[in-house]
Design brief:
This protein has two helices and 18 strands. It is mostly beta strands and 279 residues long. The chain folds into three domains: 48 residues, SH3 type barrels (Roll); 108 residues, no CATH class; 120 residues, no CATH class.
């Protein structure tokens, strides 16, 4: 909050996100406000939002509170969280570059684009506009302090540890989980599950392949324990530990769709380092 109009004026105080202010006066792009202790100052209008917008974001956060994380992601650059998966939707929270967040849900949005083409007629080149449909992938994310909202996929990297991320083979990682923590002397090597998808926007499912990685202590590297392709998979993927006659075992389940379009739960359990369907 500044003492006069303009970014070069002095700072009266710093306001926190969600702090209530009283509007005193308005100018082009600037608003004079009064804070709780009675001080007044000027704030750029882009930093203010109606109470309803904050209430809507808090409602979104409450509705998403029960959704299980599908893995941690890292923000590529500064970005605003949107109330809906649309660049025209209300914004309130802003995240900084490299902020961490949990991925909760995925949605595909169709938008109109205009493609400029050229055609030669009697030796002359003419430009023409063609209307096409394009698709965007958006993710519902939850950042620190419960800040929840929608981000386009190109703003984030779903980021498992580099020891396994290097095996992505050009696929987009859509979810990742730690299945088990294996102890070798003083070292701990987790086992991982991830879900990936072909690098093509707008595919009508969340993932199409899963892969399980376990640590090979003899070769000191991660290796593939299980891989399944050609899935039509959807969030949420759920990971748990189940009791077996041999003791606790890692297990997980997927939501998948069969060729008729029917969705069902597909469950797996690990026996040693091997993955098998759960009965």
């Amino acid at each position: 909050m500044r003492d006069q109009l303009g970014t070069s004026s002095g700072t009266v105080t710093t306001l926190d996100g969600g702090e209530k202010v009283e509007v005193v006066a308005k100018r082009t792009r600037w608003v004079q406000v009064r804070v709780e202790d009675g001080r007044t100052g000027w704030v750029h209008s882009r930093f203010l939002a109606p109470q309803k917008v904050l209430d809507d974001f808090r409602r979104l956060g409450s509705e998403a509170a029960g959704l299980p994380s599908q893995g941690t992601a890292t923000l590529r650059r500064v970005a605003n969280l949107h109330l809906e998966p649309s660049t025209n939707a209300d914004i309130f929270y802003q995240l900084a570059e490299s902020d961490k967040m949990d991925v909760l849900a995925h949605r595909i949005i169709e938008r109109d684009e205009r493609l400029i083409t050229s055609a030669a007629t009697n030796g002359d080149t003419e430009a023409a506009e063609v209307a096409i449909k394009a698709h965007e992938d958006w993710f519902l994310v939850r950042a620190a302090a419960g800040k929840t909202g929608w981000l386009r996929e190109n703003f984030l990297d779903i980021s498992p540890p580099i020891e396994i991320a290097r095996y992505n083979e050009g696929l987009r990682i859509r979810a990742w989980f730690e299945l088990y923590r294996e102890q070798h002397g003083n070292e701990v090597h987790p086992w991982y599950l991830w879900a990936t998808i072909r690098p093509r926007p707008g595919l009508p499912f969340d993932f199409d392949e899963i892969r399980v990685f376990v640590w090979n202590p003899n070769k000191s590297r991660y290796e593939t324990s299980y891989r399944e392709r050609k899935l039509i998979g959807f969030y949420p993927i759920e990971v748990r530990s189940v009791e077996t006659p041999s003791g606790p075992a890692p297990a997980f389940s997927l939501q998948v769709e069969d060729p008729s379009g029917k969705r069902y739960t597909k469950s797996y359990i690990m026996t040693g380092r091997l993955v098998r369907p759960a009965s």
